[in-house]
Amino acid sequence: MPSFPEEPLNLSAADGLGYFPADINQTLHGGKYTIVRKLGWGPRSSTWLVKREGDETEPYWAAQIFTVSASKVAETSLLPILQNVVYPTDVLFAGIDDSFWETSVHGEHMCFNTCIEYPCMLKLCVLRDAMSNRHAGLPVHAVQFTVYTVLQALQELHKVKVMHSGVKLDSLVFWPATDENELEEHLAERPPGKTEIIDGFPAVRSQPLANYTVGWDDPMRDVTDWFLILVGYGHVQVPPYARESEHDYSSAPETLLGNPTCGLSTDVWMLGCLAFELITGKKLFTSTGTPSERLGEIRDVLQDTIPDAWLGDPKVQVLPDPNTSVESLEERLSQVLREYEATETCAFLRKCLVIDPAARHSARDLRDDDWVEAAAKCCSCYYA
């Protein structure tokens, strides 16, 4: 039996999943929407480009269909935050146009219908392109602009106490060209692939909208025109914040404790990890061991101390001995950047990557940091 190319459609809600087994040309919501193509999938949902019948103004939309196991939380927790807290902010966020339930062999699925601009954009591929051209990562100016863009969103979210929880590479996307004529031309040039039937389920491969392109080596005058935004709102939280056991927080130290916590400062930690990955093409922390081993790696790379308040935590009490052979943050940056770039970049990252979350700078303070402000000034200059 061949394996599924993407989400495991045969696993049920009892397995913690239960994906919706959709197919091209299938209708949803009593015939209101027709599936045109698959745009992507993640741990808790799949996303489909759909056409709304009889809508001549905005015929194309995106349907995010949650797994059965995630659907109740999506309805009771996620939907109210997105509609009532995130949508009224100044964050570039398309919001939920419609929500409805669909039934499959696995059970009931919550569905969000959104403008195609929100969940269906081209993922940030410029890092891959840079690496294929024998560069470690993106130029510093491109990373500064990216961080500036993310901080604009985080600053607005944190004003209303919303924790994004997903500041990572997969949540950086470019807004595609969505004019109906452009979109239909793009779809005609790239029709859906053939559906495979695997174990009785229709397996459809993702085809993100990829009609917006940029160059990894664009000069700053072009980078300031990148229509880059932060998405990935599937794990947003409002107080009281609680770590989701299966969610990846980029090894934020507070989430690794025996008594784990998370909060707005966790977003800041994730931003620091993201910036390092964009610059170097590598993740800063690579340990996949126990939480104590991961905390030990963080301590050694950052050459930082464990907060006194954590010394009684069971994960901290079994920390491995310091490993002095581990390359520090400064050493890793110096391998890919000029000396002055490494010094300035490290100074910014040191404000994000602090083991004690209470000592990290806020998104608001980071937005005014000199390293970030360099990108903000360029944007103002080019748009003046």
Automatic annotation (TrEMBL):
Annotated Protein kinase domain residues: 33-372
Record field: catalytic activity: L-seryl-[protein] + ATP = O-phospho-L-seryl-[protein] + ADP + H(+); L-threonyl-[protein] + ATP = O-phospho-L-threonyl-[protein] + ADP + H(+)
Pfam families: Pkinase
Keyword terms: ATP-binding, Kinase, Nucleotide-binding, Serine/threonine-protein kinase, Transferase
One GO MF term: protein serine/threonine kinase activity
Enzyme nomenclature, EC number: 2.7.11.1
Biological processes per GO annotation: regulation of mRNA processing; spliceosomal complex assembly
SUPFAM superfamilies on file: Protein kinase-like (PK-like) (SSF56112)
Enzyme class: transferase
Cellular component GO terms, alphabetical: cytoplasm; nucleus
PANTHER family referenced in this protein's UniProt entry, alphabetically: PROTEIN KINASE DOMAIN-CONTAINING PROTEIN-RELATED
Name of the protein in question: non-specific serine/threonine protein kinase
Species, as recorded: Ephemerocybe angulata
